[in-house]
What we know:
single chain; mainly alpha; 72% helix; 128 residues
Amino acid sequence: MKLLKHWKPVLISFIILYGSITSGESFNKAPFLNIPNFDKIIHYIFHLLLSISFYASLYRNTTLNKKEQITITLVLIISYGIIMEMFQYYFTTHRYVEIFDVIANTLGCISGILFFYVFKKLKLVNYL
């Protein structure tokens, strides 16, 4: 039952997993998505959302201090991004590892932690 308290980051993680192991060619057919490096923007946004939801879940459901919450969020979300890149390399034939994807994932994670504090200041944490 404790897992139900963390359903948002789990759901986002599965969406990232699905996106990591499926072909991105269907997105390339949409003309409005014909933006250079659009996939890096997607990496950034999904890891931003994952880190916000994960950190908010830790904030609401644990007694860890701020430094521990930040450290756990950084380590797990950045590691998850690297693992997804490795999944692409080992389990697909049409995707490969890109260092810029890892950088976008990492920047999304760091930004998510910073955005969390904006939401906290605005008293919107309960909605995350």
